[in-house]
Specification:
Elements lengths: L4 H7 L2 H9 L6 H8 L3 H5 L3 H23 L3 H7 L11 H13 L6 H26 L4 H25 L1
Helix pairs in contact: 1-5, 1-9, 2-9, 3-9, 5-9, 8-9
C-alpha cells in the first residue's frame, strides 16, 4: 500500500477548520476560555501564524498515524514484515500480499467506517490523555468535555477522509 500524502495533507486541515468553528465565541469559545482560565488579553499576545503552522504540522502527524488505525489492510504488512521475501513481489509472501489485497483491499474502506475508528480513537486515546492532563492542571469536567468533543469531531472527520480516500 502506498501512503496518499495529498489526502493526509487534506485531512490535516480538519482540526483547523473544526477548531475555527468549535472554539468560536458563538459555540464553545467563551466556555472553553472560562474553563481553561484564559483571558482575552492573554489570547491577543499569541503568534497566530506560528500556532496555526504548528497545528497543521501536528495535525498531519495525527492524520498519518490515523491511517494505520482506520485502514485495516495495513495490518497485513505489519504482520508479515519479518517474513523472508517481504519486499520481493515475486516471493511467496509478496504473492500472498498481492492476492490478499486484490481480494480484500477495499473491505471497510468507507467514510463511515473511518469516522467510527476516528471516534473510537478519540474516546479511548484522546479522552484519557486529556483527562489525565486536566486533572493535574486542576481543570474541570467542562474543560475535558469541550476539548475531547473537539477531538471526537476532528478525528471522526479525519478518519473518514483517510479511510475512504487514502
Amino acid at each position: 500500500m502506498n501512503v496518499n500524502f495529498p489526502i493526509l495533507l487534506l485531512a490535516a486541515l480538519v482540526p483547523l477548520i473544526v477548531g475555527f468553528i468549535w472554539y468560536n465565541p458563538k459555540t464553545f469559545g467563551n466556555a472553553w476560555m472560562k474553563a481553561a482560565d484564559i483571558s482575552e488579553d492573554k489570547m491577543k499576545g499569541a503568534n497566530m501564524a506560528k500556532i496555526f503552522t504548528l497545528t497543521y504540522v501536528l495535525s498531519f502527524l495525527a492524520a498519518f498515524s490515523l491511517q494505520f488505525m482506520v485502514i485495516h489492510q495495513y495490518h497485513i504488512y505489519s504482520t508479515l514484515a519479518n517474513d523472508p521475501g517481504f519486499m520481493d513481489p515475486a516471493s511467496e509472501t509478496g504473492k500472498f500480499i498481492t492476492d490478499f489485497m486484490a481480494k480484500y483491499g477495499t473491505n471497510f474502506r468507507t467514510f463511515k467506517h473511518g469516522a467510527l475508528h476516528g471516534t473510537l480513537g478519540a474516546l479511548f486515546l484522546v479522552l484519557p490523555v486529556l483527562g489525565i492532563n486536566a486533572m493535574f492542571e486542576r481543570k474541570g469536567f467542562k474543560y475535558i468535555a469541550i476539548n475531547t468533543g473537539f477531538w471526537i469531531v476532528s478525528l471522526a472527520v479525519m478518519g473518514g477522509i483517510v479511510c475512504a480516500y487514502a
